Amino acid sequence: MSKTPQAIRGTQDIFGADAEAFAFVVETFERVRKLYRFRRAEMPVFEKTEVFARSIGETTDIVSKEMYSFEDRGGESLTLRPEFTAGIARAYLTNGWQQHAPLKLAAHGPLFRYERPQKGRYRQFHQIDAEIIGAAEPQADVELLAMADHIIRELGIEGVTLHLNTLGDGDSREAWRAALVEHFRAVQGDLSEDSQERLEKNPLRILDSKDPRDRRFVADAPKIDAYLSDDARAFFEAVTSGLDAAGVRWTRAESLVRGLDYYRHTAFEFIPDEGSEAAGRLGSQSTILGGGRYDGLMESLGGAPTPAVGWAAGIERLAMLVGDKGEPKADVIVVVEDDQLLSHAIAAIGRIRSAGHSAELIATGSPRKRFDKAVKAGAEKIVAFAMRDGEEHVRIKADDEGRIRLEGLLA
Ligand code: ATP
Ligand code: MG
């Protein structure tokens, strides 16, 4: 016998309760994004490699280690998308979507990163994603974060808090960066190997390091607040007061930087509170949603300066917190107790489904046992077709209201 090929490491075949939780996350996202009037976009799963390399930054983990890049048959370097934002920015520029600015966009689908697979971390994973492009006002950040918070609440997830920081404008960020380089250079030899390398290329990333050797130097590293320009400070204050007005709970996270080069001003993550049930379920892969303002991104792709802000959240990680949604029971089960009534039953179940009730047909196995099967399946309403004294007989098991509704559909 030939051997069955295995699935690719880091991919998942999502089924059963996990698939229901996954679908619940996507459905909730779809519902809430309409409340906030975000428009849907369907994006290509692959792009030219430079779309990601130029925007995300050559020195980031994603570009330097995690991309699935390959040459296609025409010799062009293509990459399976590791995130949505860069592709959306490319689309904004190549399609002239400037005419829609400020453009509120929502997307969801698979992403690909070559990472070490573990619980909550996969090589093909999925995100919901929201972006506001062409809006420079802090109000855009507030609206985007209010939507994120709303989705998490609608999912019934508790014990998760918005961690918020500002990276300042270009000037503030440069001054802060210089101070960080000075701080970390003094202890260079004690940093992790990765961070020694980051020191030259991308020192802000040291703040993001999970290595315990780095953590103790991160704690007393210079804080952005000392370097903020008046404009950057006013911007951040407008964001925080807007969040307070919107009733979004947040906490200041002074060393939160996010891994990518393109962020300015607001940067944020939603993280489970320490010791919460959510933290327990996620283990070490704790960030469920992250994002920020990326005013520099469009320029890196050759576009005009364009202010924008966005976030992405891992569907799998959200689904883990949603817990077991179970598989929903049918509203109605239609039982065929006599096979000569099959066509009647098929016609009836069609009408029941058209009226918006989920319905299952039981028409196989021993006819005498079919009704019991329906009862065991736990349906609240059962419609059984049988012959009695040579006549068709329809039996309905339901409460009074259900019976009246079903009789209307069957008449
Ligand atoms: P992490 O620090 O966990 O690697 P990240 O900063 O790389 O996250 P982002 O690029 O900001 O993550 O992606 C946003 C969200 O997408 C994350 O908060 C997480 O929920 C999810 N995510 C990212 N990478 C993966 C992955 N490999 N598998 C599953 N979910 C992921
Ligand atoms: Mg990552």
UniProtKB/TrEMBL annotation:
Keywords annotated in UniProt: Aminoacyl-tRNA synthetase, ATP-binding, Cytoplasm, Ligase, Nucleotide-binding, Protein biosynthesis
InterPro entries according to UniProt: aa-tRNA-synth_II, aa-tRNA-synth_II/BPL/LPL, His-tRNA-ligase, HisRS-like_core, HisRS/HisZ
GO biological process: histidyl-tRNA aminoacylation
Catalytic activity: tRNA(His) + L-histidine + ATP = L-histidyl-tRNA(His) + AMP + diphosphate + H(+)
Residues annotated as domain Aminoacyl-transfer RNA synthetases class-II family profile: 1-322
HAMAP family the record matches: His_tRNA_synth
Subunit-level organization: Homodimer.
Protein name: Histidine--tRNA ligase
Species of origin: Qipengyuania soli
